[in-house]
Amino acid sequence: MKFARSIRPYSCALLLVTAGACGALLTEATPDADLLDVPLDGLSSTDLAAFARGDAEFSRPFSVREGLGPIFNDLSCAACHSGDGRGRPENVLTRIGTPADGFLASLGGPQIQSRAIPGASPEVVPVGVTLSLRLPPPVFGVGLIEAVPEAALLALADSADTNRDGISGRPNWVVPAAYVPGLSGARRIGRFGRKGQTATLLEQTVDAYHQDMGITTEQHPNDNLHPNDPASASDRANDPEIPSATVAAVVAYLRMLAPPAPGPETPDAVRGRALFTQAGCSACHVPTLTSGDAPIPALRGRTVTLYSDLLLHDMGPRLADARPDGSATGTEWKTPPLWGLRLMTRFLNGQAFLLHDGRARSIAEAIDWHGGEADRARTHWLGLSPADQRALLAFVGSR
Ligand code: HEC
Ligand code: HEC
Fold it and tell me: d(Cα 9, Cα 272) in Å, to the nearest integer?
């Protein structure tokens, strides 16, 4: 079954731009593939037009003629980020090595590109090295994530565990690339990626074009080549293969993509919310943060119901990938936001894939995998009555 989106002429976003109203014009229910493809409220008509442009670029599959490859993982952003939501196991990226040994670049690191254009060879997964599998996280709400002030995250950090709750969240400090406007050389809290290894959506986007699709940009003007395949000539498209306006459109689209609203507050979900706090889940999955300043007015000063502190936590040996990233260690992961869970199975053929590599097939399984700093919360969860466990799952599943 193919999930990749093509351009959708009846998408809500485009209708909003042309007609200013969406629900009124739709004659049938929104197709599942578009459920998460919704702009934030409060956007200007200019912003909405930009959203639609970026949406089309996010869905655009590249051809060899347009510069795909020479080595790559998939043809479009949307191919991996199904319907903008959580990815599927076949979209998992394989990362190798550690910063200490230069990501084993001679073996094709940091990321294995498992596909190649005609005439080039794909990279193969080397044996005997550390591998880390990464399932694509959802991309909705990332503009709000980017707009949360660093001070708010630092206020949640407790790296020495001074309050002795067994939980010591700490930021992944990273230095943004020199091309990021206004940030050159400054240390920033990473917010994106499974270990919070990337600080800005601009870097996340141009790295994805370069590493995942083999598309060059002004920021990465040289094609990513197979290190051990001299025959793997660069593709013939002129570099940069996409203009900066395309990159800007995709970044703007990501920033304006709204997080899905939670489901109805059923009695079970209300009870589950209290149990979530009692179990200590909210020590890491912090219910709300507030955004600060942002390039788009609709992103400023909003309550973000993230259920995350965006900080790193040692999650114990069972979840460890032994691969450091930025200042994150091989056992640390960034608390993932708990949102869109109520809709996730709609894109994935009724299935759910949770945690950094998609190993958990349900919310209960995801909780069972928690360890390290989350040991106490997991023990609390295991001690709940079946009815209380159901209520807690109803709450998390309503996000
Ligand atoms: C081959 C699959 C694949 C493709 C193609 C792809 N991504 Fe991703 N994306 C991922 C994976 C896997 C991660 C998590 C990486 C990690 O944690 O190291 C990710 C992470 C992200 C994130 C961070 C989300 C968060 O909250 O942490 C954003 C934003 C994103 N991708 C945008 C894009 C854009 C824009 C494109 C196209 C230019 C794209 N991706 C193409 C697989 C893909
Ligand atoms: C010490 C911090 C911490 C505590 C406490 C904690 N979590 Fe998590 N949670 C995380 C981290 C970090 C991950 C990601 C781990 C990974 O990807 O391997 C995660 C992942 C999850 C996921 C999967 C999300 C996804 O998108 O894949 C769910 C669901 C979840 N937690 C629910 C809970 C519940 C319910 C509790 C309380 C019983 C809880 N967590 C307690 C840090 C925590």
Answer: 40
- Residues 209, 74: Cα–Cα separation, whole Å: 10
The reply to whether ligand 1 has any atom less than 6 angstroms from the CB of 212 is: yes
Output the pTM of the full model: 0.92
Is the shortest distance between the CB of 5 and ligand 2 below 6 Å?
Answer: no
Of 100, 137, 164, the closest CA to residue 338 belongs to: 137
pLDDT digits (tens, 9 = 90+) for 207-261: 999 999 999 999 999 999 998 886 677 788 999 999 999 999 999 999 999 999 9
Residue 356 alpha carbon to ligand 1 centre in Å: 12
**Top-tier CATH class for 142-178+262-396:** mainly alpha
- For the chain, residues classed under CATH 1.10.760 are 142-178+262-396
Are 146 and 294 in contact, with CB atoms under 8 Å apart? yes
- Does residue 205's CB lie within 6 angstroms of at least one atom of ligand 1? yes
